[in-house]
Design a protein that fits this description.
The complex is a heterotrimer of chains A (291), B (286) and C (350). With 286 residues, chain B is mainly alpha-helical. Chain B is built from 15 helices and no strands. By secondary structure, chain C is of the alpha/beta class. Helix content of chain C is 45%, strand content 17%. In chain C, strands 1, 2, 3, 4, 5, 6, 7, 8, 9, 10 and 11 form an eleven-stranded mixed beta sheet that branches. In chain C, helix 2 links the parallel strand 1 and strand 2. The chains are: A mainly alpha (291), B mainly alpha (286), C alpha/beta (350). Chains B and C meet through helix 3, helix 5 and helix 14 of B and helix 1, helix 3, strand 6 and helix 14 of C.
Chain lengths: 291, 286, 350
């Protein structure tokens, strides 16, 4: 939206004395807003830079080059990619049937999709422990397959999937709705199969929304903490994500490692945010909703 | 539709909603939502009420649980009020004004969405902790930020910052200016115009953002657990209380508080959905 | 496209990624080739350095020499209570090294430990410490005893007993000292002792998850004193932190147990190595490592050798004075116990 701060009508209204006071008011407003954001967000960002480098760059690199740091980053990446892959595939299916299909309970399911946004991460972790831990509903299943869920990576993957579940669905649905079925129907008439129509017609039309949803999912997954804290065993090198690494190294009095990893995560989120901004501007013509 | 009819008879692919939602995709999506969301949530509800309503209520009436709840609601309320005002102002500035760095600032607003909450908490400790950048100076003047209420508020304000801004921005941007301009021509000041013309139109958007802010502030954990002092009655919030109960294997206490928090946030999200649906109905014809 | 084909496509999309993920996750349950095994240790926060830097490497060498096997360790350090819960909830540790015997007993009650872990020479205890009060350099507030902690304006750090074993020891120390008549309260007067506990807890400003978190916050400048293990203080000072500590005249002997978790060790096929590790903890070598990292050894000779490092305590008593952990859990830490009522009283007065 093009900003405008001067309406010709306003000028013509003859309120000349408004000019100076208006300008002052405008500057004050801008300053207040920018100052608030600076104190709230920029300040802490600067602080983490300062904290991470407070004992020199060499020390920082040392602490981040340990096997434990690598393992933590690897696990975070694995969980992020895994959750994103799962949520993209199933999210697409879900978005599709919620928009294009008609079946009993569709409106209910539509509401269900939003639930993970309303669940505190610790509750997400609690849910998984109740399901897969000792005495849990699905404990027989766990014992039968021999695969550890809680206090192991699969549980952490489930937790990460849960917290980042709605993004792809919520970004794709409005676009699917907006785009309509006209092109697809045209494709069928021309003899395309369902999959062909999907890949060649539908997917390209939702691509920016899809990518936007995927990036949001990735960002959320990389930063997950509360749920994986509850569900992992805190096993160094095995079930320790980057966020858990930060939590532990703070305990170990290894503040440089903690602040360093925090800085790494902050930088990654910053890059993801830039990507998100870029995508927003590309897909803005298709997005008609908030959040 | 005789063209389509003839094409169908000629063997073109059938086109009906039912066959696209062919059972494979439909049921895997339903199974996905069921396994990932409905099943786990039911487990919490079940666990909370496993011993009946009495123990559920009793567990929530424990003084510590009550105070954690009260504190959480209070913090969420303050956060919502502050960010509703500042968020609206920020949206207004971003939409209506032109200043150097506006695009950068606009991008910057989304940052709290992307930053891990734990990192937010750590950053606050580095900045305001007793040996922190600002903390040392503040402590010497007797201001406790970290491990005190201000720290929790700062954390909540930071993580919920974008909600109201992003909710209001598109609405503000899409407003027709003629009412405002009409108000100017009859002599209203900009401020007056804002309050009587603009504000009513963006109020639903502010409400949406505020509800999302409140819901998020209710459940915030990662930043608060690092920055708060965990003292019941002073700095213990409901999610951190739940965490403590999980760690102590008090499943009933953890689940009952969780059920309450879930009920609260679900109703908030539901309200948001309803508000947005009402806003969208005029466009349904698309 | 028929429903069957689209279903197949859907399933393919689901199944292949799942298989890939399962393949990665399978590594968790493998016990490894004969030449290499993995032992999982679930410990409390305090002895992190002792295990990580000294005992585990020493054992790895010892085991390699003895059997030619390489033993890899997976370690988790959390608050003793939290660790115990995690193990009961499904965290498959082969060995548990916790802060208090009660946390091990809980694992026994859950059916995961089936041998008599207290049957050894030291009743399953591998290290000890005492509850002390960490103070700022030079002891500016002149803290000498528990009663000084009840002075108004003194900010105390002590962890949360719900998750931290260290916190439980702290509460027992304060309560027990009062019961013994060492704090000005009438000896054996439970009411008075509870009142004294309340007076101390009133000054607690931050309750962290574990003893380690508590002391690191103290080091960051929070609070005036921290009630903690002597060992935490010694480790902190060893890593360069500068503060002092006071051993109250009457305090409790912290006894830390370790035990093999039969169910998981059997499941992973590492029973021998696990048992050997727990036995190793009582050898002079491991005991010296504990001592290096601030823990008082149980091995008589090592203790005698290093007596100068650990100041004697005027009135040192054990959990037995309070009736043993079972009674303490009932009387002090249960829903209606002394601790809970004190906390509730304190909280309603805030």
């Amino acid at each position: 939206m093009q900003p405008d701060d001067q309406s010709s009508l306003h000028r013509r209204s003859g309120k000349r004395q408004e000019g100076q006071a208006g300008h002052f008011g405008r500057t004050a407003l801008i300053l207040t807003v920018v100052l608030y954001a600076a104190i709230l967000i920029l300040g802490p960002l600067v602080a983490i830079f300062w904290g991470a480098f407070s004992e020199g760059a060499a020390r920082l690199i040392d602490e981040l080059s340990t096997q434990q740091a690598f393992d933590a980053l690897k696990l975070t990446l694995f969980l992020g990619l895994g959750a994103t892959a799962i949520n993209t595939v199933f999210g697409l299916c879900t978005a599709y049937i919620l928009v294009r299909d008609r079946f009993a309970g569709r409106r209910f399911l539509n509401g269900v999709v939003d639930l993970p946004f309303a669940v505190s991460p610790v509750i997400a972790g609690l849910m998984l422990i109740l399901l897969f831990g000792r005495g849990g509903w699905l404990e027989p299943l766990v014992n039968a397959t021999g695969m550890k869920v809680v206090f192991a990576v699969p549980g952490m993957l489930l937790a990460t999937c849960f917290v980042s579940l709605p993004f792809v669905i919520r970004e794709v649905m409005p676009i699917l709705q907006h785009v309509g079925t006209a092109h697809e129907e045209a494709a069928y008439i021309m003899g395309a199969g369902k999959w062909q129509a999907f890949w060649k017609v539908t997917l390209p039309s939702i691509r920016w929304g899809l990518v936007y949803g995927v990036v949001l999912t990735m960002a959320r997954s990389l930063g997950e903490f509360g749920a994986v804290l509850v569900v992992s065993g805190g096993i160094v090198g095995l079930t320790e994500t980057s966020t858990l690494f930060i939590f532990r190294t703070l305990d170990d009095r290894n503040v440089i490692a903690a602040y360093g990893m925090a800085l790494v995560l902050a930088m990654v989120s910053f890059v993801l945010m830039l990507i998100v901004e870029f995508l927003k501007s590309r897909s803005s013509e298709f997005r008609g909703h908030n959040t | 539709m005789s063209v389509f009819g003839s094409l169908r008879r000629a063997g073109a692919q059938p086109r009906s909603a039912a066959s696209w939602g062919s059972w494979g995709i439909r049921y895997s999506a339903i199974a996905y939502l069921f396994v990932m969301i409905l099943l786990p949530l039911s487990a919490v509800f079940f666990e909370g009420f496993r011993h009946g309503i009495g123990p559920f209520v009793r567990s929530l009436s424990e003084p510590i649980a009550l105070s954690a709840l009260r504190l959480t609601l209070l913090f969420a309320l303050i956060t919502t009020l502050v960010n509703a005002v500042m968020g609206t102002m920020t949206a207004y500035v971003l939409v209506r004004f032109h200043f150097p760095g506006r695009r950068l600032f606009n991008a910057f607003v989304d940052l709290p969405f992307a930053i891990p909450t734990l990192v937010t908490g750590v950053m606050l400790v580095v900045l305001y902790g007793p040996q922190g950048l600002l903390g040392e100076w503040l402590e010497s003047r007797g201001f406790a930020v970290v491990f005190a209420k201000p720290g929790i508020l700062l954390a909540l304000l930071m993580v919920t910052y974008p909600f109201v801004v992003r909710a209001v921005q598109p609405v503000l941007g899409g407003l027709r200016r003629d009412h405002e301009e009409a108000a100017w021509t009859i002599g209203a000041t900009r401020v007056r115009t804002f309050f009587s013309v603009v504000l009513p139109e963006i109020l639903p958007a502010i409400a949406t953002g505020a509800l999302l802010t409140f819901a998020r502030a209710l459940g915030e954990f990662g930043s608060v657990v690092v920055v708060a002092g965990n003292i019941a009655g002073r700095t213990l919030t409901a999610p951190v209380h739940v965490y403590g109960q999980i760690e102590s294997e008090n499943r009933l206490a953890a689940s009952s508080m969780s059920v309450l928090l879930l009920a609260l946030s679900f109703s908030l999200i539901l309200t948001v959905d309803l508000l947005q649906k009402r806003k969208r109905t005029p466009h349904a014809a698309r | 496209m028929t429903p069957l084909r689209s279903a197949t496509n859907c399933l393919t999309l689901i199944v292949i990624p799942l298989l890939a993920l399962l393949g990665c996750c399978r590594q968790d349950t493998e016990t490894g080739s004969p030449g290499r095994i993995t032992l999982t240790l679930g410990a409390y926060t305090t002895p992190r350095e002792a295990y990580g830097k000294a005992i585990i490497p020493a054992f790895q060498q010892f085991w390699k020499q003895k059997t030619g096997q390489d033993v890899e360790f997976q370690t988790s350090y959390q608050g003793s209570g939290a660790q115990s819960r995690a193990i009961i909830s499904g965290f498959e540790a082969d060995v548990a090294a916790l802060s208090l015997a009660e946390d091990v007993e809980k694992i026994v009650e859950a059916g995961l430990i089936t041998h008599d872990w207290k049957s050894g020479a030291n009743r399953g205890i591998v290290s000890t410490s005492v509850v002390v009060v960490a103070v700022r350099s030079g002891n500016p507030l002149k803290i000498r005893d528990w009663t000084d902690l009840t002075r108004s304006g003194v900010e105390i750090l002590s962890p949360d007993p719900r998750t931290s074993g260290g916190a439980m020891w702290n509460i027992c120390a304060v309560y027990g000292a009062a019961l013994r008549g060492k704090t000005g309260a009438q000896k054996d007067d439970r009411q008075a002792a509870a009142g004294f506990l309340e007076a101390v807890l009133r000054n607690v400003s931050v309750m962290d998850k574990g003893a380690r978190e508590s002391i690191t916050n103290f080091e960051k400048g929070i609070g005036d004193v921290a009630v903690t293990y002597e060992n935490e203080v010694l480790v902190g000072r060893k890593s360069g932190q500068r503060y002092d500590y006071v051993i109250p005249p009457s305090t409790i002997l912290i006894e830390n147990p370790a035990a093999v978790i039969d169910k998981y060790a059997d499941k992973h096929g590492v029973q021998d190595a696990a048992k050997a590790f727990v036995d190793f903890l009582s050898t002079a070598e491991a005991q010296k490592a504990f001592a290096e990292h601030g823990l008082r050894p149980v091995h008589h000779e090592v203790a005698a050798e290093l007596a100068s490092r650990f100041p004697p305590v005027e009135d040192l008593w054990t959990i037995e004075y309070l009736g043993g952990w079972k009674q303490v859990m009932r009387e002090i830490f249960s829903q209606n116990g002394v601790y809970s009522s004190v906390i509730n009283r304190l909280h309603s007065s805030r």
